[in-house]
Amino acid sequence: MNYDFTGITIHMLSDIDWGGEAGGDWMGIGSDENLSFTGTFDGHGYAIRNLYSETSGLFYIAGSTENPVTIKNLTLENANINSSEDNMAIVVSTILGNPQRVDAGGSASNNPNQILNVNVVDSEANFSGNNCGIIIGGNFQEDDAAKVTGCTVSGTTLNCTATSGTPQGYGMVIGYDGSQGYSRFLDNTIENSTFTATNCAMTSVGMVAGKITGRAHIEGVTVEGCDIELTYATTSTAQKSSDIGGVAGTLNSSASYLVGGTVTNTTITANNYATNMGLAVGRLNGGLVQNVDVTGGSITATYNATADQAGRYGGVVGSFGNVAAKLYNCTSTGVTITSASRVNSIGGLIGGIESKAVNSLVNGCTSTNFTANMTYSSNKAHAFHMGGAIGRVMAKSHITNTTVNNAAINTNCLVMCVGGFVGFVSGDYASVISDCTVNVANIIQASSASTDAKKNFHMAGFAGCIDSGAKLTGCSVSTVRIQPQGRTMYYAGLVGSTESKELGKVKSAPITVKSCSVSSVNMDPKNNRNCNEFGGLIGRLTEGSTIEDCYVSTITAADNGNNEYIGGLVGWLVAGSGAKTTIKNCYVENMNAKAKNTNLAGNIVGVNSATNGSFSKLYNYNV
């Protein structure tokens, strides 16, 4: 439908029933880019029912570089839109923008394109191109600005029907926003809706936004009872899905924000090789996620990879990618993440902070009742990096005031780097972790992982392995239980090891631990296999480290007759550069752990191989 609508308002005066397929193929208002819809469409609360099209949504192209568009107060019910083109949606396939930018506060000298109080109910869209959605498909031009407020998508299915390639940019509110004009997505609701892809891998899929590369802000979002189903099954790692999120698949700008919102009982399922999946954001490349609460819900990866490692799955964010990012005051409650592959990086809050995300910040977040299930079964290959809060930290970061309550990490395979708070901390520069708490953590390994030839490495109540010289201050673990089935090395109440040679590199660095505590650590190995280098605080410690003002109050280790290198604070202090090791003002009480060889055990340090040390004001009680 082509007409110059500039300055014109269309008023709906009653409901309209298009009649479905029998009504013919709707062509879309503004189906010529030179005559895009540039007026106002006011539905006055009425509904358009049974809209059908093999070409376009209700609007094909809306807005222009001179004139914005307003679409408001409208419901589309039982719409069925199908297309193989890029940039498709049920409401507006493509938005073109006005030249003046909307500022960060949402105001400018003229109005942005606006979609207000538009609802899509019990509808279906079948698209195979890129950048597709339910409310908007794509928003592109450099200075475009879209403002979408108070919209609802309910009981609606968005299907990617492509049979080849890796389509990208699918979301219920918008598929892709690449504008630099501060688009705003405010107080929108997605409920009981589903995204599916059955014949291809996907990139950048979210229940609100697929991919944002501009300055968009998502605020006050509600996602409830939704499902993302990537059921394309393949044994090829060339077919990879990535950046899958309950709110946004990819936030790819330091100026993109997700602030305020809830994600409830929402699930992500992937049958193919998949990375960067989070129940709020799949991949956060810069920008901020703040005041987002995730409750219930799950991520399930059923692809069984033995040689390759999928991963970076998080209860809130899958990964911090190539730019420093921020996570503030977010919660994850009752989330379950299950993987059948050799997963790399699972966390109750964040799957992984990757190597280029230097100077990332995490503050004031909480993970409660988080469960990670490794159903991958192997006694030959390890799974890596699992934590109650963060799977791994690979770049200098500051993590503070963050709490884990009752984390359960269950594995069916050999593991490396498992912690009640974080699995692995590495990178070229030392991270700082301060005032963080693990209240209860259970790390349990199934019997099928037991083997005499292979070992588990780096298991602890707080951090499995830290090889980057990180600083831990004011951190605590109240109760941790570690139950390995196979041979295990480097396990402890706080940090398993400060050396990572088992991860394919020989790297270690002195660590600084101050004012940290472990209230109760229970090491319960099964099958009478060797479990070495166990410390109430640290399993294996690099020479040159500093431990001050720390305590461990209760240590219990099952006596299987094969434990060695056991210490109340440190299992083994390993020789290194000859730098001075300082341990002072620390105490251990209620230690109940026995070593096979009493020469390989100690109340404070099990075995000391360091050549330069200063030990003062160290106490043990009721030992």
Brief overview:
By secondary structure, this protein is mainly beta. It has no helices and 70 strands.
Descriptors:
623 residues; 54-stranded parallel sheet; 70 strands; mainly beta; single chain
Structural features, described:
The chain is mainly beta and 623 residues long. It is built from no helices and 70 strands. The strands form 2 sheets. It has a 54-stranded parallel beta sheet that branches. The protein is elongated. The model has no long low-confidence stretch (mean pLDDT 87).
- Count of extended strands: 70
- Tertiary shape: elongated
Structural category: mainly beta
Low-confidence stretches are none
Number of distinct helices: 0
Mean pLDDT score = 87
Q: What is the CA–CA distance across the termini?
A: 85 Å
The major beta sheet can be summarized as: 54 strands, parallel
Strand content: over 45%
Radius of gyration from CA coordinates: 27 Å
User: Share of helix among residues?
Assistant: under 10%
Secondary structure blueprint with pairings:
Layout: E1 9-11, E2 16-17, E3 40-49, E4 52-53, E5 59-62, E6 70-77, E7 80-83, E8 92-95, E9 113-121, E10 124-127, E11 132-133, E12 136-139, E13 146-149, E14 152-154, E15 157-160, E16 168-171, E17 174-177, E18 184-186, E19 189-191, E20 194-197, E21 203-206, E22 209-212, E23 217-224, E24 227-230, E25 241-245, E26 248-251, E27 257-264, E28 267-270, E29 274-278, E30 281-284, E31 288-295, E32 298-301, E33 311-314, E34 317-320, E35 326-328, E36 331-333, E37 336-339, E38 344-347, E39 350-353, E40 360-363, E41 366-368, E42 371-387, E43 390-393, E44 397-400, E45 403-405, E46 407-419, E47 422-425, E48 432-434, E49 437-445, E50 455-460, E51 463-466, E52 471-473, E53 476-483, E54 487-492, E55 495-497, E56 512-514, E57 517-518, E58 521-523, E59 531-535, E60 538-542, E61 546-548, E62 551-552, E63 555-557, E64 563-567, E65 570-574, E66 581-589, E67 591-592, E68 601-602, E69 605-608, E70 613-621
Parallel strand pairs: 1-3, 2-3, 3-6, 4-7, 5-8, 6-9, 7-10, 8-12, 9-13, 9-14, 10-15, 11-16, 12-17, 13-18, 14-19, 15-20, 16-21, 17-22, 18-23, 19-23, 20-24, 21-25, 22-26, 23-27, 24-28, 25-29, 26-30, 27-31, 28-32, 29-33, 30-34, 31-35, 31-36, 32-37, 33-38, 34-39, 35-40, 36-41, 37-42, 38-42, ...
